[in-house]
Amino acid sequence: MSVTEGAEIAADPDVARGAEYVFDQSWDQESERLRTNEAIWDPGTIERLERLGVAAGWSVLEVGAGTGSIAAWLAERVGPDGRVVAVDLEPSRLDWLTAANVEAVRLDLRTQELPAGAFDLVHSRMVVQHLADRPAAVAKLVRALKPGGWLFLEDTDSLSLFRSSAGEDFLQDVKAAGYGLMRRSGHEPRGGHFDLDAALELGLEEVSAEGRAVMVHGGSRQARHYMLWLESLRQRIVAEGLVSEARVDEALREMADPGHRWLSQVLISTLGRRAR
User: What DSSP state is assigned to residue 220?
Assistant: First the structure.
């Protein structure tokens, strides 16, 4: 039996697959970029899901599932009587999720609808901040909640990224180049703040928000994420003359150096509950 039975998400194979999204889904290192991003943020996300009280039998929608680490945790938590619907622009990365209570679905949140009143929890991490019409996207996620269901949004504020004892300007030129390109592709560098605004404006109850950041050590798996971030944008930022090829190579060496440490973005976690 499909875990979306009675709450179908249209899986149109011809749906637009995020052509404007800044990160190329066909890049041969995109899966690794996503996995290293999960290595940074999963511990804090799981801590908050545990605090929320995700329980056996819950129906959960995981939006922007990436390579599936949080979807897998949720599937174990909700058990055989629960269900997890994991949606992403590229669900092939979720093929390893073979549990009977998990279904992976291709979904573009901008153009496709979600089943109304179907989920006890909707979780989305680093998705809404990339969308042009963020209030509409959040409203769509809220409509997918059951009465009393929880919305859990996680998006960033990038101000703190690369703050370091190495110097006030540590990697700030490549940050400006990369985030300038991302912003032109629709990314909002203060996305987490707008999640909170949307939750309040939509009348959710028990709304709260908090931020967390991680100190990244050069050469670590977490540092590898920022190296892949820069590599993924390299061709375009060099072509636009924002930084030189030589500077990108130098920045990658700085990120790989165990002697360097820097602060991540602040990931803002917003929670709110749909009225019963």
Answer: S
